[in-house]
Amino acid sequence: MVASQLRFLVAKTGMTDALVSLADTFVQDGGWPEGWAGVLGAIRSVNKEKAQDDIAALELLAERLRPQSLTDRITCYVTPQAWSALDLAELDFDEEHDYAAAENEINRICREIGTEIAADLDLLEQHASQLADAKSYRVSAVVSTIGEHVQDIDGAWEIIRDARPTNGDDDSYIIQAMFVNGLARQNREAAEAILDAALEDEAQHKNLIPMQVGVTLNAPGIERIIAATKLPTVPINAFARLQYNVDWQAQPAADFCRVLRAVADRENGFDIAFGILEVFAHRDKLKQEAIDPAVQEVAKELLFALPFDEKRRDKGHGVARVISTFLQAEDSAVATELCSKLLDAFATYAIYAGSYNEVVKALATKFPTIVLDILLERAADAQDRGYLFLTSRIGRVNHAASIDPDTMFGWAEEKPVSRYEALAHVVPIWEKIDGTSEDVTDLDEFSGALRWTETAKRLIRSAPDPIAILNTLLGRFRPSGWSGSLAAILEGRLPLLETMARDDDPRFAAWAKAAIPTYKREIENQREWEARDSRERDERFEW
């Protein structure tokens, strides 16, 4: 505790001599290895103050604290968390030093420590618990180096296998997986034997999957993973490591599909399997490689079974990527199922509608008619329809703009009375005068001048009851959420009515001329309210 706060104590109290004396007391009482990093941090903080006497005293103290023993070197270089107050790489990171260079140097020292331990199993036995307790990723450099260089593989593994953290059950850094990772580079056959034995040993099941993904995956590894999905003693959360620690594109597609299905079939495994697919979709999209039909098939299976529940209420981004990557135009049954469940989940507040805008966009792009049928026509009321299909939040995307206008209006013509009215709740209404459209801008809060979009004008002129459409569009002029002045936002939309008042169609012109006075009163009332509210707030804060 004192070591991590030493830089602040020195900089803020000015009691350098007293702190140096306290540090020497710690040294005499059995050593203070972590204090070395604390003193180095203090030197950095004092250096800015130009206190040369303090710097000199601290530099002498740092020299006395410099780690010499193996235990002290592990404490100083291996166990501190990255970017913490005791991270030596962070202490070297200033205008004259590159953090990456300092990091590389510390990793080199960690590998030296690993090589030293690998040569002496007594040292490994002495320090195994200390390594197991490490909360820093740098322990991997030490333990994988041990695996890479140790000669007595069986003896070393016996020590590593049985090492457990003494400070809790944290599985962030599993030294067994690190050892196997290094060992595989020295002797792959020995690493495979350890993995086979771990599959048969219930005591090792907790670490089996981390150990397996620590080595390049091969055919036996695939079989172990699938076998592990059938073992209740292998924690289900361990399979989440298959998301990021395996390059699935390097594996046969059939094996990838088998693993996905096996994980999905495990109790509480569906979300993990879908997470693996989400990461795969991200990588596949980046590489722009052809997708194997077998992978597409399993992706459709998982999408069809995907639940929209509270656990997934704000996780729409990954779902959208999977839809965009794997679904094709012929997959209408999957799209229909997704849209139906999406609408039900929104109606029951199981998901956050704003988190699923990308999902709606992905579906609307590939399956516009299905989206219109379900997410628009089936919606319970105008509010649900508008809130789900577009969104009035700042910076969001209006997904009605993702649908080709001809497709949209062709759909409306099939049931013109109801469908044109439904479209009035979701089509982009306006764009900036420069032509920037509503679907890519923060126009719900934009307070500048706007003009009608071509889609909105077509909607008005094509609808069987254009006045009803105009009334619905006018209702959307007031945003559901905003920052700044609402009066200014409303005023920016006034030119839309003024333009309509000059329309060649006398019906539209008459409607706009009748609407403008009421709308102007709304703007003025809002402006007066804002001014009154501002005065009242100023008075509350006057002293």
Describe the model:
The structure is a single chain. By secondary structure, the chain is mainly α. Among the domains are: about 140 residues; about 150 residues, no CATH class. It is about 65% helix and about 0% strand. The protein contains 29 helices and two strands. The protein has a two-stranded antiparallel ribbon. Helix 3 packs antiparallel against helix 4, helix 14 packs parallel to helix 15 and helix 20 packs across helix 21. It starts with a helix and ends with a helix. About 40% of the residues are buried. About 0% of the residues have low confidence.
Summarize the structure.
With 543 residues, the chain is mainly α. The chain has helices at residues 2-13, 16-28, 34-47, 52-65, 70-78, 88-91, 99-118, 121-132, 139-149, 153-162, 175-186, 188-200, 205-213, 219-229, 253-265, 270-287, 293-305, 316-326, 332-347, 357-366, 368-377, 382-389, 405-414, 416-424, 454-462, 466-475, 486-492, 494-501, 506-540, and strands at 430-432, 450-452.
Number of strands: 2
**Radius of gyration over alpha carbons?**
32 Å
- Order of neighbouring strands in the sheet with most strands: 1-2
Q: Which overall shape is indicated by the principal axes computed on the Cα atoms?
A: flat
> What is the residue-mean pLDDT, rounded to a whole number?
84
What oligomeric state is this?
A: single chain
User: Major β-sheet, in short?
Assistant: 2 strands, antiparallel
Beginning-to-end CA distance, first to last residue: 43 Å
How much of the sequence is in beta strands? under 5%
- As a percent range, the share of helical residues equals 55-70%
